[in-house]
Write a structure and sequence with these properties.
The complex is a heterotrimer.
Chain A: H1 2-15, H2 35-66, H3 88-95, H4 101-132, H5 138-150, H6 157-166, H7 174-181, H8 186-198, H9 201-209, H10 214-225, H11 227-243, H12 246-251, H13 260-265, H14 276-301
Helix pairs in contact in A: 1-2, 2-14, 3-14, 4-7, 4-8, 4-11, 9-10, 11-14
Chain B: H1 3-11, H2 27-55, E1 58-59, E2 67-68, H3 72-78, H4 81-113, H5 119-131, H6 136-146, H7 151-158, H8 174-184, H9 187-198, H10 202-210, H11 215-243, H12 247-253, H13 266-276, H14 280-305
Antiparallel strand pairs in B: 1-2
Helix pairs in contact in B: 1-14, 2-14, 3-14, 4-8, 4-9, 4-11, 5-9, 9-11, 11-14, 13-14
Chain C: H1 3-9, H2 11-15, H3 20-28, E1 47-54, H4 57-73, E2 77-84, H5 86-98, E3 105-108, H6 110-117, E4 144-145, E5 148-149, E6 152-153, E7 156-157, E8 159-163, H7 165-171, H8 183-196, E9 202-204, H9 212-220, H10 235-250, H11 257-264, E10 278-284, H12 288-295, E11 300-302, E12 319-320, E13 323-326, H13 333-345, H14 347-353, H15 363-368, H16 375-386, H17 405-417, H18 423-441
Parallel strand pairs in C: 1-2, 1-3, 9-10
Antiparallel strand pairs in C: 3-13, 4-5, 6-13, 7-12, 8-10, 8-11
The chains are: A mainly alpha, B mainly alpha, C alpha/beta.
Protein name (chain C): Multiple sugar transport system substrate-binding protein
Keywords (chain C): Sugar transport, Transport
Pfam families (chain C): SBP_bac_1
């Protein structure tokens, strides 16, 4: 990895060449000097990126291979070479738990969709207020918001569990979704604040002079301009919620409410026998939605300012 | 006025406020936009925080009611050698892994930002490790790679290295494998950098090109200043996150912080005290000490930001 | 999965707050009259009981069958299953108990039985009428303390040394006679296997790998791990234990410190004994099934050695592989105990469970299910029954504040094997730390 970073250093200059359009796959920049040198550079870069990519891919490959091995061979055969295809892991894994695995995927999907909508709406509203509006107590609220990120989770688990159990919301999705609608993921509020601050003020000033209210400016000027930040928020919310184990563990008690990460642990018993093959198979299955969400989401991510009509 | 200015003026006595008085023409709109967050803050955030603050002054074993003991928990910290060790481990981790990960994330983001063949593919591949989350699979994989007869040692063996250590299970090397695991998941800051790069208006670059500015000039005069709010964001959040780091250590050591406490992160220690030893009063006190440490670093960050973060407002 | 990812993904949990009512509830926990949902009657007038356990998918399916059978026989009861996995199970249980929302029936472990029981969170089963008349001698005791019967043995367990015949054969070493072998025999055989096996295979796993070993070691010195409310041994005993480990290590009877620490973090079926890289393994008897399956071998089950070569001097003991406990705050103590009674004593329940949670302590049940047992089960039961006449006293579970003793002991053990601390220092610090924990918890 270090060799990669040092060699990419030399290409960072090129990396800044914005002559390509925002869409991808438009070729490696505009050759300015020698075309041969440029081609060599380009090839070298791809080779390096692919090498680094393999390093990144290794875990996935290993998981995929393990998901196709019989249970007793997973830890006895190292390496990525498969002698047999033990596809039963998939069919067995799908049905091994109290509910078909699809149920857990569905539960996770419900929570994830709720969380994404909640975070996008509530965090962007709060961020607009912090970044653009002048109101009393703004600094103090901002500082408090940052403070809420700083306390380790483990000491607030119990008080907050008490709250939700008093509300009768244990074993429902509310404790997982509702907080998102109340912008409790301060991380994203701060993220969006930083993005909004990067948007030239002239743009909303102009709108304001035209007589637009804050809601209009927020909706028609700021939101379209912060599409990359919104995409980032959506992607991260998707992935972090999809992978979130602890909250789901604490609040969802009955097996038919489990989300994917909780269900996956049901295959494992560290003090006895574990169903590793099924666990890996279902891990792969549950990785697919995340992967596609990312592939889809990053299309929005790279839609920069250039595509929103403002230059 | 920048966020820095705001925080600074927070620290100043009222009379000494810089120049013009803050106007608040958007009071109503401000609180309307902030309403969901404020509701969340008061309904579900502040309560547990205050509860944990209260518990830090009590002897609380989770099962019986808390008992007020004043500052005893904080006194106890002074003689707690394992706490000192966990601080050492955590600080090492923060100061090594955060700069490494951010530098790597920024470099890759810069490379991947420009139009090139296979961009979407590379981006996805580099983000992959972050997709896997804190899954059990990662824990097993990491042990497979860095075990005594794992992938790394097999390669080293072929290179003729005699009896390399068991990276994860040796107290001298265990922490470095966790740092590596953290750096390896540079996908999240990379994505944020990418989004930030995309938001830099093209017109600046075009104007610079017309003026004949070279790539390095464009990087230092346009990219760096315009990306600085995002770099700042990543820095602040990464430091906060690294101080609270839990998962990696939990995964790699199976929650023990071992071998020999060499990967006993602060939050892991706190967790063991609270849930393993039913000493939630002490754990709460530990949490608030950590909050003070993190807040101090964040304030320093905000003050330093005055000199290098550029806002267009 | 950066740190932040995790922290943030958990932040949902962090942010949730505490209303005024909740704050009251927090200070009210332990008063025994809170509003937990457990044990309430549901809309149909049926008694609703919450049942929680840890385990893998096999146990989950098995437990679902138990629940189904019980509900069929007792139509007035609805049992809500809440399954979990070992590591996270305890976080969840602690949170639920703290919030006065504990499940009615709780699968419990020796490590935590006093932590909960000693603080009043568990029901005295004996006082509430649990029938243990058919239990094998010595099998009820592990759940007893001065607070009463805090949990009933759900499966009989004993500390054992397993031997992998394949490793022995490959090394050309004979299996020992476990009725007469001594500690010197153990060391000699282990050293011989290491010497005659391929690189990376050792005579034995580290005795430190299992929390029973120190207990067994102390018992043979006339000491015990715990007394009713403190430690039952001194620094000199712990030092002797660490010295013995170092001796085995220097003789290469056990793997290197790196390998030992690594093995420690692995789950059962990844461990060096399970994959055939060790001749002897220090485990609990109820793990034999899993080791048979993971290794694919017909693993042999052996008694601990003794100093004298007499099996009775090995001072073996019965442990509960796990307990059935009940929340002291249940609203339906009667129905809860009735259910636990059925789990413990009914042949129907036994027929469904067989030995999934360990060898049934109830002798009638054990006899009636004999024809349903696998080969591994039969080996285990034969062993459990064979050692019964040789058993020493039943050791006490860790007192309040000492539940994490195995972790502490392991940490100091690692200090010693990695040369970071002398055995004398480590032993002294071990005693100090555990005694400190016990006194601050009481």
């Amino acid at each position: 990895m270090t060799s990669l970073s040092s060699s990419t250093l030399t290409t960072t200059g090129n990396g800044l060449d914005r002559s390509g359009t925002s869409a991808e796959g438009t070729g490696s920049g505009r050759p300015k000097k020698s075309p041969v040198l440029s081609a060599v550079k380009s090839v070298a870069k791809h080779v390096l990126l692919i090498a680094a990519g393999l390093l990144m891919l290794y875990p996935l490959l290993w998981m995929a291979v393990s998901s196709l091995r019989p249970n007793d061979l997973i830890f006895r055969q190292p390496g990525l070479w498969l002698k047999t295809l033990h596809v039963q892991n998939y069919s067995e894994g799908w049905t091994a738990l109290a509910q078909p695995f699809g149920r857990y995927l569905l539960n996770s999907a419900i929570v994830v969709i709720g969380a994404i909508v909640g975070n996008l709406v509530s965090c962007s509203l709060a961020a607009y207020a912090f970044a653009r509006l002048r109101f009393k107590g703004r600094k103090i609220w901002f500082a408090i918001m940052l403070l809420t990120i700083m306390l380790p989770v483990h000491v607030v688990v119990v008080p907050q569990y008490i709250l939700f159990s008093q509300l009768g919301w244990v074993n429902t999705f509310w404790p997982l979704v509702l907080p998102k609608f109340l912008a409790t993921d301060a991380f994203f509020v701060f993220l969006m604040v930083q993005f909004i601050r990067g948007i030239p003020r002239d743009l909303d000033e102009a709108a304001r002079i035209d007589g637009c209210g804050h809601l209009k400016i927020f909706w028609h000027v700021i939101l379209p301009l912060m599409l990359p930040a919104l995409a980032t928020t959506a992607i991260f919310t998707f992935i972090w919620t999809w992978n979130d184990f602890f909250t789901a563990l604490i609040y969802l008690t009955s097996p038919d409410m489990f989300t994917v990460p909780v269900a996956l642990r049901s295959f494992i018993d560290s003090t006895g026998g574990s169903n590793w093959g099924a666990m890996f198979a279902m891990s792969i299955v549950s990785l697919l939605p995340v992967f596609f969400a990312f592939l889809f989401g990053q299309k929005f991510l790279i839609k920069g300012i250039s595509t929103t009509g403002i230059k | 006025m920048s966020v820095v200015g705001e925080l600074n003026s927070l620290r100043r006595p009222k009379g000494a406020k810089k120049g013009e008085k803050e106007e608040s023409p958007d009071n109503k709109a401000g609180y309307l936009f902030l309403a969901p967050w404020l509701i969340g803050l008061f309904l579900i955030t502040i309560g547990p925080m205050l509860a944990s603050l209260y518990l830090s002054f009590t002897d609380y074993n989770l099962i019986q009611p808390p008992e007020w003991i004043g500052l005893d928990n904080f006194h106890r910290m002074l003689g707690d050698s394992r706490l000192l060790n966990s601080l050492k481990v955590t600080f090492t981790y923060v100061f090594v892994s955060v700069p490494l990960q951010l530098a790597l994330a920024l470099l890759i983001a810069l490379v991947l930002d420009r139009g090139m063949r296979g961009l979407a593919f590379y981006r996805s591949v580099f983000y992959l490790p972050s997709l896997l989350g804190s899954s059990v699979a990662i824990a097993i994989l990491w042990r497979q790679i860095f075990g005594t007869s794992g992938l790394v040692n097999q390669v080293l063996g072929h290179l003729g290295v005699q009896s390399p250590p068991g990276w994860i299970s040796n107290p001298d090397t265990a922490l470095s494998t966790i740092i590596l695991l953290h750096v390896w998941t540079f996908g999240s800051p990379m994505i944020i950098f990418l989004a930030g790069l995309r938001q830099i208006p093209r017109m600046y670059y075009e104007a610079a090109e017309v003026d004949g500015a070279g790539t390095l000039t464009r990087f230092s005069k346009i990219t760096l200043p315009l990306l600085s709010p995002i770099i700042f964001f990543n820095l602040v959040l990464q430091i906060i996150g690294a101080f609270q780091s839990f998962t990696q250590a939990f995964i790699v050591s199976g929650g023990s912080g071992g071998p020999s406490d060499s990967t006993m992160f602060y939050t892991l220690y706190l967790y063991q005290k609270g849930f393993g030893q039913f000493d939630m009063g002490y754990a709460s006190a530990l949490a608030w000490l950590l909050l003070v440490i993190i807040a101090a670093f964040t304030v320093i960050n905000f003050i330093a930001a005055k000199y290098w973060v550029f806002y267009d407002d | 999965m950066t740190t932040r990812d995790f922290v943030i993904s958990r932040r949902g949990a962090l942010k949730l707050g505490l209303g005024a009512t909740a704050a009251v509830a927090l200070t009210a926990t332990g008063c025994g009259s809170g509003g937990g949902a457990g044990g309430a009657k549901n809309a149909d007038g049926k008694v609703e009981l919450r049942l929680t356990w840890w385990g893998n998918d096999t146990r989950n399916a098995n437990t679902a069958k138990l629940v189904e059978a019980y509900q069929k026989a007792n139509p007035n009861v609805v049992i809500k299953p809440e399954s979990g996995e070992w590591a996270s199970y305890w976080d969840k249980l602690a949170t639920q108990v703290a919030a006065n929302d504990a499940p009615d029936i709780i699968q419990m472990d020796e490590k935590y039985i006093r932590e909960y029981g000693g603080r009043g969170a568990l029901l005295d089963l004996a006082k509430n009428g649990l029938d243990t008349s058919k239990f094998a001698p010595g099998t009820v005791k592990p759940g007893e303390s001065k607070d009463g019967l805090m949990g009933i043995n759900a499966g009989v367990n004993a500390p054992v040394i397993l031997a992998n015949p394949k490793v022995f054969k490959a090394a050309g070493v004979d299996l020992p006679d476990d009725k007469t072998w001594t500690w010197d025999d153990f060391k000699r055989i282990a050293v011989e296997i290491t010497r005659k096996s391929p690189k990376g295979t050792y005579g034995s796993t580290s005795p430190m790998a299992n929390d029973a070993t120190l207990s067994g070691f102390l018992r043979q010195r006339g000491k015990a791990l715990f007394t009713e409310d403190s430690l039952g041994f001194e620094a000199a005993d712990a030092q002797a234990f660490y010295d013995w480990i170092m001796e085995l290590q220097k003789a290469k009877a056990i793997p290197s410190p790196d390998e030992v620490a690594e093995d420690d973090g692995k789950s059962l079926d990844q461990s060096s004994f399970a994959i055939g890289k060790a001749g002897f393994g220090w485990v609990w008897s109820n793990q034999l099934n899993a080791y048979d399956a993971a290794s694919g071998e017909d693993i042999k089950i052996l008694r601990y050695p003794s100093q004298t070569g007499k099996a009775a001097d090995a001072k073996l003991w019965y442990k509960a592989s796990m307990f059935w406990s009940a929340s002291s705050r249940t609203k339906n103590a009667e129905e809860v105990v009735k259910f636990i009674n059925w789990l413990s004593n009914s042949v129907d329940a036994g027929a469904i469970q067989t030995t999934e949670r360990g060898v049934p302590p109830n002798l009638d049940v054990r006899e009636k299910i004999a024809d349903k047992l696998t080969k591994s089960d039969k080996k285990t039961i034969a062993f459990i029954e064979a050692i019964e006449p040789e058993l020493g006293d039943t050791p006490l579970p860790p007192p309040v504040g000492a539940g994490n003793f195995p972790d502490i002991q392991k940490r100091y053990g690692q200090d010693v094997i990695f040369g970071r601390s002398s055995s004398a220092d480590a032993a002294k610090k071990l005693i100090d730390e555990v005694k400190g924990n016990i006194s601050s918890a009481s």
